[in-house]
Amino acid sequence: MLHASGLAAPPPPPIPVLTHPLAPDDLAAALRTFSGSYYANHPFHTLMHEGRLSKRQLQGWVANRLAYQRAIPRKDAAILSNCPEPEVRREWLQRIVDHDGVEAGSGGIEMWIRLGEALGVPREEMEDERHVLPGVRFATEAYVTFCKTRPWIEGVASSLTELFAPDLMRKRIAAFPQHYGWVRPEALEYFKSRLTQAPRDSQHGLRLVTTWCTTVETERKAFEALAFKLELLWVMIDTIHHAYVEP
Questions:
Q1: What angle do CA 234, 204, 75 make, to 5 degrees?
Q2: pLDDT per residue over 85-105, tens digit each?
Q3: Which of 177, 234, 169, 243 is nearest to 199 (CA)?
Q4: Residues 6+ apart with CB under 8 A from 176
Q5: pTM, to two decimals
Q6: Is 122 in contact with 53 (CB distance < 8 Å)?
Q7: Would you say 123 and 191 are in contact if contact means Cβ atoms under 8 Å apart?
Q8: Is there a contact between 181 and 112 (Cβ–Cβ < 8 Å)?
Q9: What does the mean pLDDT of the chain come to?
Q10: Taking the chain, what is the end-to-end CA distance rounded to the nearest angstrom?
């Protein structure tokens, strides 16, 4: 019997079989159970948190992840373009500001570039994305395309991976000073910023999904959207892991 590598795919998320719509609290609880499929569980992150990544592996990770960081405000803009609700657009807009900043030299993308510099990747090499792998670029563009072409509430549901992000950020914040002391502490500002942004954003997204997804079909689409995003993140980290694996 053919068996794929254990790294090939995340554990399947527990998408429930719906015979009737879930109540809002039950829908939120069901979405939270998808945490076991989050890419924080990929072995690459285990190696990172245990201090077993080489400088080269960290550099490959940070250089490739910039493509994803840059895709985030683009997918958020796509969600906005599909959303007819002004009150939703007004609040969702903050996500773009968080990543692009209010002026040049600010925002989450700039923080990520500075992290790359601290890990030894020159700014020029970060900004021109010369190290971004085809698989990573394909995955990030698939995310933007998903949010462009699907109903806005499905794009919102796909963003709910942020429910699981704070724990990953806390592990990174702890691991870098402990295992990678050569990285300047101020370079970790991106991770620290997500400790407040991710809970705020995920609660907003969860509120929207539980408000707008009230039928079996819309709830099923919400589960599928989150499953899609989880698989996408896994593809991205798995691609990076295999590209920079140490002999």
A1: 50
A2: 999 999 999 999 999 999 988
A3: 169
A4: 183, 188
A5: 0.94
A6: no
A7: no
A8: no
A9: 95
A10: 29
